[in-house]
Amino acid sequence: MPSKYAHLLTEEEKWHFDLHGYLHLRGVIVPDRLARILEVVGYWLSVDEPKIPAPVFRHRQEPYKTHLDHIQYGHRLFQELNADPEIIRVVAGLTMGAPRLFHCNFTKMDPATPGDEDHQGYHRDDSGFKFPPGFRNPHNDYQAAGGEIYCSHLATWVALADVPEGTGFSLVPGSHKSAFAPPDGLKVGHDPPVSITVPMEAGDVLVFSTHVLHDAAVWNRDYPRMNIFQRYQLSAYFNETGKGGLPFEEHRDQITEEEYELESLSKEEKAAVTRMRRHFGL
Question: Which sign, positive or negative, has the C-alpha torsion 180, 184, 188, 190?
Fold first, then answer.
């Protein structure tokens, strides 16, 4: 018997996610909203660090990547994005109505010089605890039964700039269900059907199981790649405390009650899910 949230995804969406491990949502962020988001992140990227509101944190991962972490605590725009009905519909539909946001950051990727990304390889995300071979990781589980999908660890890739085919976000479709290690030398990039990049327009959102093999392909455009990552997990009992888990109590006054609840452990339906159901009349 499926839960009362099984109907949040269409049958076509269930089929595609179960087969490939991701869904592509088009046009979630309209141009005016996108412009406001870009204005805020552009300011945080350009000002001296003391002018960035804590706990938003700017840092570089590699010479060509700049991150802004915990952006929802710096501006209401990102809280609204975390609870966007289009996104929450899919995330709630994959977590039996019980999503919890546990990470939100912005990434700016500049064009890489030759050899910069030789170290890259596909990876899966987890909670930091490695289970022995043959065990299922409850923090990153995937099941489908009775007309419903259960995916306990999800992420979104929100495109803030156009992403042409052959560059940008790369994944191995269907690898969220693979029980075998990938072949040696499997390079990140566009090599269908084994690996693909997903062409996206600014404002599109990719929702994917973090057990899918994924990474960022080389960026080779004359403008930076910019995106926002949101990570969600089952709200009932999973908590990424080892990573300085949300919510940040000392900054609680910087977020709405809805955002605070969305970041918190709970067995009750989140306000963002209730609002989403009203939005779509579900």
Answer: negative
